[in-house]
Design a protein that fits this description.
9-stranded mixed beta sheet, alpha/beta
């Protein structure tokens, strides 16, 4: 393994982070165990297509990027009165036993090097607790990074027969003019017959390296829907996934991205069907321009006990320049014959006939291109059920096209 930041981390630093948050001893122990494990853990898997590894995380200079004791942010976290939307410190004061039971239950703190690093160093976060039977909307989390590195942890617990819609935004403060590292872990625990919709819009500075992992586990009759918008950052390595562990549970993963300049997106979406009568739908559309690159991997894993499964996947990437690159690697892993599943992926450029048709009717070439790109995103934007997030994505896409 190449030189990593763990060589410069100490127990004292971790104890200081934990102490500043007022954490109990058991949480400190989880952090220290993750710190100790760093030496033996590998980087997360990157997407591989025949003859090529698209992303080299070992080349990142974590030693200079990560400054564990100098985290700074501007954060808003709000929600309706019947839902607890709490900072990490306040959540430990009010719901310590709940956090002790649920923290790390979906994302293993030592799953790989970067999850362990996040567990060791996170100094900010949000806990969203939705009590049984509560229906809630308009939970909003906004994080503006104002330091060289920032480690963020979000835990969502939706009790039986509850529902919640969460909109998260990440951005970078205007004063930062150096490279940054942002890490975000999101765990969602959806109880029986609950509904969780989690929308995320990442618009970090193009000087930022971004690692995010979002994973949920759905109980019987529960639904977890993810909406992923990726516009910013220099390099994004992100994974969004759902474990369908309860009968008749469902998930949808909707993604949109737009890369330009030399941005790089490494995106994966996964669903694990582990129970009967489960349903999944994965939909992603993205654009690459200039010398930007994208690679996408979608995995539908149907277990041997997942009878009567429905699982669908569609991914489309549009390349606006001859120098940009894109690839997709959809996968089906089927271990139960009582399954209806499909996947598709396309990578291509703007149809020259469509462009000719529009320019021949008086539309200038740039406007014609922009209209076709906006139209390309329509099928995925129609799947975005959160109006505010859809409108934000439409505005950011339009702004990118005007640059």
């Amino acid at each position: 393994m190449s030189t990593q930041v763990h060589a410069n981390l100490t127990d004292e630093q971790v104890r200081q982070i934990s102490g500043d948050l007022g954490e109990p001893e058991w949480m400190l122990e989880i952090r220290l165990e993750a710190l100790e494990a760093l030496e033996d853990l590998d980087m997360p898997d990157v997407i591989r297509t025949p003859g090529r590894d698209w992303t080299n995380l070992h080349e990142l200079d974590f030693e200079s990027l990560v400054d564990p004791l100098n985290a700074a942010e501007d954060k808003d976290q709000v929600g309706p009165d019947e839902v607890d939307v709490l900072s990490w410190s306040d959540a430990l004061d009010e719901h310590e036993e709940l956090i002790r039971e649920r923290f790390g239950s979906v994302v293993d703190p030592q799953e790989n090097y970067l999850t362990a690093l996040s567990t060791t160093l996170f100094s900010t976060g949000t806990v969203v607790y939705v009590p049984e039977g509560v229906d809630a909307e308009d939970v909003k989390i906004r994080t503006e990074q104002n330091s060289r590195s920032l480690f963020n942890y979000t835990l969502v617990v939706a009790e039986e027969s509850s529902s919640v819609t969460i909109l998260e935004r990440q951005s970078t403060g205007t004063e930062l003019d150096e490279e940054q590292y942002y890490s975000g872990i999101v765990e969602v625990v959806a109880g029986e017959n609950s509904y969780v919709q989690y929308g995320s819009l990442q618009n970090l500075s193009e000087d930022a390296y971004n690692f995010t992992l979002k994973r949920g586990e759905a109980d019987t009759y529960a639904t977890i829907n993810w909406i992923e918008g990726n516009i910013g950052s220099q390099l994004t390595k992100t994974g969004t996934s759902t474990v369908l562990s309860g009968d008749s549970s469902e998930t949808q993963i909707v993604g949109a991205f737009f890369g330009h300049n030399d941005q790089h997106f490494d995106l994966d979406a996964k669903v694990w069907h582990r129970a009967e009568h489960t349903t999944a739908d994965l939909v992603t559309r993205g654009v690459t321009d200039d010398v930007s690159r994208s690679v996408y991997e979608g995995v539908q894993d149907v277990g041997s006990e997942a009878w009567d499964t429905s699982s669908y996947q569609r991914e489309n990437t549009l390349m606006l320049s001859d120098e940009s690159e894109a690839d997709a690697s959809p996968k089906l892993i089927i271990n139960n014959h009582d399954t209806e599943a499909s996947h598709s992926a396309t990578v291509g450029q703007i149809d020259e006939e469509d462009l000719l048709y529009m320019t021949s009717r008086g539309v200038d070439p740039r406007s014609a291109r922009n209209m076709l790109v906006e139209g390309f995103f329509v099928p995925v934007l129609q799947e975005v059920a959160v109006d505010e997030l859809r409108e934000d994505l439409e505005e950011l896409i339009a702004r990118r096209l005007r640059e």
